[in-house]
Amino acid sequence: MRIDYNHIKSQIEELLTSYGDLEEDTDNNTSIILSGRVAINRSYNGFTVDKEYDIRILIPLNNDELPDVWDIGNHIDKSYIHRYPDGKLCLETKAFMALCFYNGYSLLQWMENIVEPYYYSYEYFSRFGEFPYGDRGHDLVGVIETYQQIFDESDCAKVYKLLQAISRRKYKGHLPCPCESGMITRRCHGSFIYPFINDDYLFSIAQKDYSSLCEAIKEYDKQSNH
């Protein structure tokens, strides 16, 4: 289950109640847009951020898409590595956010656990030159790091094998785990990979990420052989 679009209006009302300066800007058949100012008040390691930010939130009404946020007040420096040129924020990888909603995230939880920490991390990084909660890389580095977290597996080679198994969409809990640990799947990585095999949406994301990873490996091999 991703965002519960059957109750999208109640989730919108929940956001508008929690963030009083947000207003519904556009409501059509494909998306709902909220615009306004949000206040962030967070502390970590003795550093407090108490600021307001002007943002636009696009909430798609399509289960295959995820919400996006734009910095419309130019609060985020254009050179910041997690801000796109058009002001859209690079909040997280698609796979990570998709799994959050799959596990029951509401829009309010998304705002509190992903959007607010983004702004706090930006301010912390601007002050200290490092990220308070760690950082995820871009492109395929970010993809690998995401699945390392999802699969609770630090070995990149094993992550690749688990993604490969998902792309083949065959799950046999009593057979050896694709990571080649020697344990059967259900006692090893079974609980981590099964949601991606069982759910069409999560499967499509993992399959696309695996294909991109394979293409990158082929390109690297091609360059190495020249």
Describe the protein's architecture and organization.
The model has no long low-confidence stretch (mean pLDDT 90). Helix content is 45%, strand content 17%. It has seven helices and four strands; from the N terminus they run H-E-E-E-E-H-H-H-H-H-H. The protein has helices at residues 8-18, 94-102, 107-128, 139-151, 156-168, 190-198, 200-224; strands at 22-27, 31-44, 47-60, 68-71. It has a four-stranded antiparallel β-sheet. With 226 residues, the protein is an alpha+beta fold. The protein starts with 7 loop residues before the first helix and ends with a helix. It is globular and about 55 Å long.
Over the alpha carbons, how many angstroms does the gyration radius reach?
20 Å
End-to-end CA span:
46 Å
Summarize model confidence as the mean pLDDT.
90
Helical content stands at: 40-55%
What would you call the structural class? Answer: alpha+beta
Low-confidence stretches: none
Instruction: Give the overall silhouette.
Output: globular
What is the spatial order of strands in the main beta sheet? 1-2-3-4
List the main descriptive attributes of the protein structure presented here.
226 residues; alpha+beta; globular
Short summary of the structure?
The protein is an alpha+beta fold and 226 residues long.
How is this fold's topology laid out?
Layout: H1 8-18, E1 22-27, E2 31-44, E3 47-60, E4 68-71, H2 94-102, H3 107-128, H4 139-151, H5 156-168, H6 190-198, H7 200-224
Antiparallel strand pairs: 1-2, 2-3, 3-4
Helix pairs in contact: 4-5, 5-6, 5-7, 6-7
